[in-house]
Amino acid sequence: MNLRILKKLSKRAAPLLPLLGDNRQQFPAERGDGHTSTTGHDRKHWLRMRSIHGEEFPGTIKYKPRQGAHWIAMREPWDALKGTPMVGAMEGYYEPEWSEETAWEALLDIVWWEYVICDEDGPIPLRRFDTPTKVLATAYEMIAHRAAAAIAQGEKGGAA
Prior knowledge:
Blueprint: H1 3-13, H2 16-19, E1 25-28, E2 47-51, E3 60-63, E4 71-75, E5 85-91, E6 97-102, H3 103-114, E7 116-119, E8 122-125, H4 132-159
């Protein structure tokens, strides 16, 4: 997944989050801000930096081009594109810190933990979420189920 697709999926996920109970602050990412933990970007989307020395940094790949005397170091981007919908809030008790993620990551987290059972062997998923289509379909299904449950609860309360 590249950062453009992450931005598009986050725009689709942002209106669903309040309906699923995520009431954190939503805001667009700024340039150079808005960290994401989504990985697996194609290498053509990685950030490239020139280096005079061939030093190694964790998470980088370096190579020497055919023409030129400098090394090129590549690393996977960890900043979301400008305008990507983000959600964030202060978390922690004694020393609260700002925690943020893209709207897509937040939706994926909510949907994943709704359909997982944890036991001594670890988490066991009840559904497969291979594609974004499956994640969004499950999110819409969860919203419809919660709306139906709220209507049924309202009918019980009104009948009494």
